[in-house]
Structures are given as structure tokens and as C-alpha cells.
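Subject: sequence -> C-alpha cells, single chain

Hey, anyone have a minute? Need the predicted structure for the following. Not urgent.
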Amino acid sequence: MKKVLFILLFTVSQLAVFAQTEEQKKDLDLFKDLYKVEGSDVVFTKVLENIPGTKDEIYTNVLNYMAVAYKSANDVIQQKDKDAGVVIGKGNFDVLKDGNIFTTTTYNCNHTIRMDIKENRVRVMLSVNEYNVSIKDSKTTDRFDVKITETYPIVEKTKYNKKNYAKVFINLCLTVNKIFNNIESSLKNESTITSSNDW
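Reply:
Had a minute. Here:
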């Protein structure tokens, strides 16, 4: 009887650790229209409307945003074409830092960001494909990469660490959404950047 009770308690505790919560399901549902899977990438897209300025002015403001947001536009921007209205860059952002008294686990993502510019509109596409995971304890640090398309919620029926990867993916969506909002705010608050000789 004790053996059966132990197995039952162990099974329930494992389900509690790995099952996603109802709150996580609701959060994931909120973000389902923000991204789509394209091959091995998860691509987040948002079209920003009512951006002030001409196409050329918006292009300049996009470059200025990249320089400020990423500290160095030269290191980040991979391609820019003023006539086509395209700016493509690469960067890295923090997704989640989690831990307990023994270990700290950090999830980061390398990403590619593309901005397509038209009159009064900018389409922002941000692509990610791996979590860069770092697990640190008092003595060692382990680093490895995990394909996002091989984890929950992209792989719906996964049994491996579902609750944890739901939490990480929700934080990824929140981070990307914050980036989109920052870009929109920056482009709407900066009309054209002009130089002044009176400073």
C-alpha cells in the first residue's frame, strides 16, 4: 500500500511540475496571432500604421532607432537599402532569468530584425530560432542551445518540461511585443531629425 501511495504521489508531483497552468494557456492564446513558424524560425510580425514623415524620413528614423536601441548601428545592421526601404539587423536580447538557491538559468535569443518602410507604414519582422541557455551554479556554468521549434508550444504534444517552456515562450512574446512597442513609440515621437546650429 505504501508503495502504491508513493507512486501516486510521485506521479502527481511530476504532473504539477511539468503541466502548464490555465493562466499560461490564456497568455499563450493572447500571442497566437503575433507569430508564425517558417521552417526552423519563429517569425513575429507587426505592421506599424500612421508613422509620420516621408519614406526617406522614416528610413532615417529607423536607422536612428537601431543606433540607439542596439548601442551601435554599425555592429547590428547587416543590410540597408534606402530606395527599397529595407533595414535588416541582427542582435541578442534577454528572455528570462530564473532560478533557485542552487542554480540560475538564463534564456537569451539571437534574432534577426527586418523593417520594411513605406509611406506612413513600417512592417517589423523579428525572427528567432534558438534559446541560448546558460545554467550556473556555485562552481560551473553549462551553456547549450535549444531549438524553439522543438519545444512547447510550437510542439504541442511535447512531454518535456512543458510548463517551463510555456513560461519561457510567454516571456519571449512579451519581450518581442515590448520591442515592437518601443519601435512604434520611437518612430511616432520622432518626426524628422534635423540638425541645429544653435546648440
